[in-house]
Amino acid sequence: MQEKIDNIIERVKTEILNASNKQELIQINAKYLGKSGELSLLMRGLKDLSPAEKPKMGAILNQARDQVLALVRQKEEVLNDQELAQRINNEHVDITMPVKPLQVGTLHPIEIIQRDLIEYFVSQGFSVMDGREVETDYYCFEALNVPKDHPARDAQDTFYFDAEKLLRVHTSATQIKTMESRTPPIKMISTGRVYRVDEVDATHSPMFNQFEILVVDENVTMSDLKGMLENLAKHLFGEKTQIRLRPSYFPFTEPSIEVDATCTHCGGKGCPVCKQTGFIELLGAGMVHPNVLKNCKIDPNKYMGFAAGLGLDRIAMIKYGINDIRDLYDGDVNFLKQFR
Ligand code: FA5
């Protein structure tokens, strides 16, 4: 038996020595250690030996099996190394070749302004409120002192889902939600998309972005509003910026104002951008109408407030010198990648 085993080991050694790839190695392994392999058959024959012979022969066969396994593994390592060396030899990396530039995205100009304004107001203790783009007539109009037959609705026509549900025309709806859910003092901002049935032109889009500011407290005055607006204009367009207040009308504020800032292009001297007026329109604002406070169960004899609403698209256009609002929505990568 020992002779037979020695013979097997010798053959295994020669065959392994001659094996030139892993497939041949697998075959050698199967030939000796597979189900019907020579060594496996000998091991299966152990059961026919006498009890005295069994342990001795068992040990010899186990040793032979381990030896064959070790030889196969050794050769496998050699073949792996050869394969790797061959691959390294065949693959040439040209480190002088220019790399493909990474495409890094940029923030949309409106997103940049939105984030900047949120940071600006949050640092002054304002909280950020979320609003809904699909609103009810009540929050968008009625609670803001704009009843169903009010002429102000014509200027802010919108898209209706049914008699009650509509796409909000302004972020002012969030004022009501905030005043309903909190008690004064209130300092809140809210931003997002709004919708109107407006014809598209260089400065109008049926979908645009607004930024709402609301403060409600005891003894809040128009001069607090003016101070806040002055600082805001300087923050947006630089320290030299000045503002001008014009009387205006919003049903939800009394008095109401339209706020202009000195033209960022000519500094107030007059140029084609500001149509020679020296000013550009910035936002609408005013003191919260007592009816609005009452609608939110806030006592108008105790509390006062101011509110303002900016059109972020127009701010982006002024800040970045964009002539057409449509550029903001065309998704032209070459246009958008300017804003970093
Ligand atoms: C309002 O929407 C008021 N809710 C603002 C307000 C809030 C007043 C709080 C008082 C107190 P107005 O309709 O003027 O106001 O719109 C505000 C800004 O939205 C405008 O100054 C303008 O910048 C922008 N805007 C209005 N319509 C469009 C449009 N179709 N496309 C782009 N921007 C627009």
Strand and helix map with partners:
Layout: H1 2-18, H2 22-33, H3 38-44, H4 54-90, H5 109-122, E1 127-128, E2 134-136, H6 137-140, H7 152-155, E3 165-167, H8 173-181, E4 186-195, E5 207-217, H9 222-237, E6 243-250, E7 253-262, E8 279-288, H10 290-295, E9 304-311, H11 312-320, H12 333-336
The structure holds adenosine-5'-[phenylalaninyl-phosphate].
Explain what you see.
- This protein has helices at 2-18, 22-33, 38-44, 54-90, 109-122, 137-140, 152-155, 173-181, 222-237, 290-295, 312-320, 333-336; strands spanning 127-128, 134-136, 165-167, 186-195, 207-217, 243-250, 253-262, 279-288, 304-311.
- The longest helix is centred in the N-terminal third of the chain and has 37 residues, at 54-90.
- The protein is α+β, with helices and mostly antiparallel strands.
- Bound molecules: adenosine-5'-[phenylalaninyl-phosphate].
- Adenosine-5'-[phenylalaninyl-phosphate] is lined by residues 170, 172, 196, 198, 204-205, 208, 210, 250, 253, 281, 283-286, 307-309, 311, 313-314, 325.
